[in-house]
């Protein structure tokens, strides 16, 4: 799960910084690469969601968390997991409402296009808002765990960080 968690971070940053219009200016190879990155991101997101549905949250609040922090811990994690699922779902709906056949990574057909341009625009807007809202929640999640590490001096960061970073924590 650590690998999945930390593998999502660069993908998340990629999609925050690189838009489809940006890669379209570079050329077809860049568009395909962006699409492959999307396929990897969605696959990882769905794997994470399935893991959550089967086993629940893997992390527990810990003994040092109390009050608002104890309440916020599972809320942040569940919001991220369900939010990532929602981003994947609205991405699928973009393909469903498209006027052309979209392919994830040039490998997997997203859906049979139903040629619904107004619905496609609306779903695209919802998808964007949802993704950027999720990004702000991910930043709040990171800030929460950094706060835990600095203020409570618990091992929350060490538990999830790769071993090479433990000496810095």
Description of the structure:
The chain has 169 residues and is mainly alpha-helical. It is built from six helices and two strands, in the order ααααββαα. Strands 1-2 form a two-stranded antiparallel sheet. β1 and β2 form a beta hairpin. α2 (20-26) runs antiparallel to α3 (28-55). The two termini are 20 Å apart. The relative contact order is 0.12. The model has no long low-confidence stretch (mean pLDDT 88).
Describe the global form: elongated
Class by alpha and beta content: mainly alpha
Strand segment tally: 2
Mean pLDDT: 88
Low-confidence stretches: none
The number of distinct helices, counting runs of at least 4 residues, comes to 6
Strand order of the largest sheet: 1-2
Tally of structural domains: 1
Q: What composes the largest sheet?
A: 2 strands, antiparallel
Helix content range of the residues, please?
A: over 70%
Distance between the termini: 20 Å
| Radius of gyration over C-alpha positions, nearest whole angstrom | 18 Å
Helix and strand pattern: HHHHEEHH
Short description:
The protein is an all-alpha fold and 169 residues long. Helices cover 73% and strands 2% of the residues. The protein has helices at 2-17, 20-26, 28-55, 67-97, 117-152, 156-160; strands at 103-104, 108-109.
């Amino acid at each position: 799960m650590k690998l999945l968690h930390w593998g999502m971070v660069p993908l998340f940053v990629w999609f925050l910084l690189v838009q489809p219009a940006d890669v379209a200016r570079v050329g077809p190879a860049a568009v395909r690469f962006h699409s492959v990155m999307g396929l990897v991101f969605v696959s990882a997101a769905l794997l994470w969601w399935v893991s959550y549905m089967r086993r629940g949250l893997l992390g527990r609040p810990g003994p040092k968390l109390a009050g608002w922090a104890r309440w916020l811990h599972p809320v942040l994690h569940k919001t991220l997991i369900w939010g990532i699922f929602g981003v994947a779902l609205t991405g699928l709906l973009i393909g469903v409402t498209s006027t052309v056949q979209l392919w994830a990574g040039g490998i997997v057909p997203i859906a049979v296009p139903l040629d619904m341009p107004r619905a496609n625009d609306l779903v695209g807007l919802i998808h964007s808002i949802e993704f950027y809202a999720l990004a702000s929640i991910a930043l709040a999640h990171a800030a929460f765990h950094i706060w835990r590490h600095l203020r409570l001096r618990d091992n929350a960061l060490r538990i999830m960080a790769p071993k090479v970073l433990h000496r810095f924590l």
